[in-house]
């Protein structure tokens, strides 16, 4: 079975050729297999040449990037813009009066408020101005308020889906049809990873403060993109990644010996089988082994000084949003491209006042700490931090202490890479019911996030079912006004 | 990323005969149809290029038609695509500053279009929509009679390229391939012994029959059908709690095992409830219509969700049977294929009679269900062991009669309470029940709130041949009849294309979900059609088509490429060798459990819950609803070791080991799984307790064979795991690992105990602990090999 060098070269060039042909649309399965693990690196590399990891489909970047990585603080459930970042004194004035018919006539009601008398509910928390920029932020967020001069608050977000599950899917994938890649997968695919020891797209969840509406794993799924671009969910308690812990009784040395044996045996069978996937498999075992050592180190907060732990408000990986924020910073430092933290606690159909307070207390300190910590490390300038949910809440009350889902406007803020700091963007009417200027649709948000990362949203495509798909579908306009 | 769907023509000479479907349609479809195609909503300048009449018609404002057959020089199309002035050149850039390179025509594409027009500009209907005719089997000169007609088609193209078949795979490799492809399981030691004795050449056909008769065949075939119909154990949306529908899965397994004709299989699923003298089994089959996602979310609008369910059904039938993306026509006419919005909603209307709710009660059942309690001998439905036990008791009581010590009243009471218990544990399953159809309207831009669109009656897509004369309103049964009628040219093509994929890793058309004009041109269109005709004429006999494929020489070739095969046929589109590919997620599990001897042979029944990381379902919220979809409880005894397809399928949180190997969530119909190769897979194979336990149980069996030397034990392990003998270097490597691990565990017996405690299966008493631990490591090494999860 002695093979010539020329033969090996043929294998190599063939695979490259196949790769380029696949890229022209040979179809899902071929593309998936070929792209997986093959990366842009050497295809039949000597083992010591190391792991060829994925460097991204967009090479070179379409535009100079303003950020290299994203930390998305996803406030699941739909935080009330009217109690958080969109101050509406008119609501306080009209508290308890009927909503003006001119606003709501002919509008679709959600099933929960349908049929009820629609009365204005005044904001449950007061607002004040902060920083040199004088941004108005609610008293719920004393810590985030300190970021006033770092952040841009978009008050004119708009979505299309009024129920949690489809609204999350829409926010993450730009479509409600399932099977589309989430934005983190698009980033991992388009930009590649900078870490040899960790996946490019990591997700964590926490809860508290309201009805913990469920989050499906589809929110970080890679859809039709190859599976390697799927978000890997880290647990912030127990084992941080599924199956990352060695079996009991197996030491690190045992596991290394095992992986080395598997590698040697795979090499031996490759002599007979000449299967390029074997090389990929070997690389992935190496990555898996490195994850088994890098992940425990990653979640070990003992190397963090006391003042940092206090700043975030966590002592260790305890499953809290605060712990996840600290973990997010550590992931970002290690080259992870997209970190998404869900906090499930913002669905306040009732118990609005206390529920909001509880949710805010769980996320306020750590959200601010994350931004400030990135800043003091010089990382904020190339990290995009996003904070927001899937929709807003109605200016009309639901019962006497609740608000229903609302899609015609909501607030979201960003800070860091490429964001014009200390500003607001877009305006809503005096009830916080509808956008009156500079509407930002979910598709526009996606286009802008991609732009910040150096990608033209119309040119990051992937062919599936005979069509080139984009994160922005056939929509999306760049929101220049939020860029520095 | 974009470009022509078919082979790249850039450095090839122009073909002698330019064919519309092979050469021209992909260019027009990719580059032109979006504005000059079937969608009336986006059509520019009144020109459509998918139809000859429009493309060759005189048009106001132009001196000439877009295309004048025979004269590329006077055809406006050629003029416009070769314009020097970028402002006039077609296709236009999508928007200023953001030129999309994918739409620009290449020089060779323009040359092809010119040549085609000069040759007379013959249009062809899209291949998959043309009438099915049996193509002539190519007459290829060979020394021996081809093993299957399939070979003649394949060989004809190979010969054109100056190639031939590769050698057949060696016996053990081919034997393993055949077992994996037909049953999803590796051969047993007994099978291997028989192989060693008899060889494969003379017994091959008999083995094919034996494996087709194995009940494992139905389980293996069910996997991809369950993906298409999006079978799952939970509701999907929002709280994603349990639903009862597993008897449908048993139905599918049995249907493949009994080789139920595919036309019957189609009718029973789509309209089992409407069949005359319908059987209980046919009602179970009609559960197909209830497999989609549903919601129980408080505040959700029933009307919105009914619209979602309707669209989901159209997408599923469209993909599963028609291999089409008719789902695109929910909001607009299809851009590439002639599906209109009327076709979409007309298809949806077939399902408007299904009894269902838009939003179900949070703590109530999804309905209507069929209760399967009965003492009838329907073995398929009697897998629920608790019920078996109760029924056996009842039978016994009836047979033995009342003992004298028990009063008549007491006896009656005992029988009644037992009957009640049976009734409450009896399996129930969602089925279709027809009621007065709700009105279906065309929803403008897919907007469910609008009642502005016209009402539509159930109707099949006109261009695929309508349902024909039907008195009254067409029913689901009419739809099913049409799907498998001779008028419909696509269903058989779609199905045999997917069968081909099972045995080669790719379809004859690579796009399993789309045989429409954006799908890929088949590598062997005549073979595809020949198989499709064979399928129909055999009475939709699935096993018959499988035989044609696996008996062929094409199938039996080695998958190890020769230099020539790699050079001349790099992507193997000519089949100058077999393909190799990773097995499906379920099979990864099955192969490992079978190797260890743990695999349960029980067929069918409710889903089971193999070990899953403890915190994995931590984040779910089922709003107080309890049941198997709310809390994961590791299954006991034999149920811990069932085949992968019986794993509890929770759509929002699929078992992470299954998910790691690309099993779909089944929220949507999926025709093709991606095949990835990721570190998460390595972690699962290394550390999932199911696989650690399998290694330990394998190790124990090796040690229980006391007469064997350590080298012979490795031989045995390789035969069980990989169906072959280890090579010397492999044995040496594993012996090295064994020695080192023996030393390690002898020095730390506690660690050995800990490792051996993984998994439920007890440890045989006669095996020494540190030795077993060391062999467990050896077992883990073998079970982690690339060869384990790959079909060569």
List keywords for this structure.
heterodimer, A: about 475 residues, alpha/beta, Alkaline Phosphatase, subunit A, 2 domains, 9-stranded mixed β-sheet, two-stranded antiparallel ribbon, 17 strands, globular, disordered N terminus, B: about 800 residues, mainly alpha, two-stranded antiparallel sheet, about 45% helix
Task: Tell me the strand percentage band of chain B.
Answer: under 5%
What is the mean pLDDT of chain B? 90
Count of spatially separate domains of chain A: 2
CATH architecture term of the largest domain in chain A: 3-Layer(aba) Sandwich
N-to-C terminal Cα separation of chain A, in Å? 61 Å
Q: What kind of assembly state do the chains in view correspond to?
A: heterodimer
**Strand order, biggest sheet of chain B?**
1-2
Overall outline of chain B: globular
Total DSSP helices of chain A:
13
Instruction: Please report the total strand number of chain B as a whole number.
Output: 4
Query: Helix fraction of chain B?
Result: 40-55%
Mean pLDDT of chain A: 85
Look up the CATH topology of the largest domain in chain A: Alkaline Phosphatase, subunit A
List how many beta strands of chain A DSSP finds: 17
Radius of gyration of chain B: 30 Å
